[in-house]
Amino acid sequence: MKIQKHILLIWGIGLLSMGLLLIAAFADGIQINTVDDDVFVPFALSYLIVGGLIASRHPGNSIGWYLLAGVFTLSANEFMGWYVNMGLEVQSGSLPAVEVFAALTNGMEYIGYTLLLIFPFLLFPTGRLLSQRWLPVLWLAWFAVIIQFLEVFRPGPLDYFPDWDNPLGIEQLAGYYEISGALIELQYTALFFICLILLILRYRRAALIERQQIKWFAFVASILSVAIIMSLIFEPIPLILEAVLGLSIYASLLLAYAIAILRYNLWDIDLIIRRTLQYTLLTGLLLLVYFGTILVLQNLFVSFAGQRSQVVVVISTLTIAALFNPLRIRVQEFIDSRFYRQKYDAEQALAQFAATARNEVDMDKLTASLLGVVAEAIHPESISLWIHTYEED
Predict the structure, then answer these.
(1) Exposure of 228 in the CB half-sphere (CA atoms within 13 A)
(2) Taking the domains of the chain in order of start, what are their residue ranges?
(3) In 10 A of CB 156, how many CB atoms?
């Protein structure tokens, strides 16, 4: 059986990336990425696998190829750091081009993350722009890659090897590098908001399947945004929580890419969003009732008995247990009526038909009621009912 060329390319990129990554990971070297090594290795391998799956099953979707390219760039960056470290440990001059590889680490890392995060965000979920009018945005993203690559030629001490001056540094560009940091920040900020606007426009114009794909990405992004905001509010956070947050960000985005593009359990997102809204609101209300009950009852105990009592905690806990199921039902009805109106109306119509069917004996009225329920629930373009009748011998 003839193997397709894109499959060979995927295997080639994958094996080369894994080789570079594993050599650097299991050797003593200088860390040259912003992600801890314990997190970076599984992160890179996971993105490599998902990128390979997307590229093999949907070779026309460029997101898979960008994921592969991003992991390859980061793996090469890790390998170059290991190579430079080896050059520092052995006799000077025994390894060729050590300082050149050290200079290349100046910009390669952020090029990898740009390929890994910005381009998939911009092209999600189809791997194509919304229209040709958005082509300048793609040029802007590639311009960001070029700007990052120019960091290789920044004169002066190297970022990760400050004892060395950049052998590739261009002194004539020193004026540019005084403003390059602000230019990079401005560029990435603009790209983020443009990608967000583009995703909203995609959702408004998308067909049913593409909307489900965008829902997965939006759901994950909203949860990550809340987590990041909470970490900033309660900063500084423990290092272990910071590592977990970093891993969660990359893992969640990867999960969104995999489910949305590979369409695995794609339709579960509506149920997940619905349950998240319901139990988030329910948890907030229960906490409000719990602490409100404790506050009120403790004040009453202090007023009458002159001291606090543990009975208040027991009463509050029993109140929460008693309110949980009724409150859950009310919250579910509120969420369905506000955000899932069509589904809520369909359920109400079906319940009404069930009540009618128990008491109605007129076949014509029952048929009309059934047709009305189906039309209200799923809004078909046309509807007809066929009733099989048995002829007596």
Answers:
(1) 11
(2) 5-264, 273-339
(3) 12
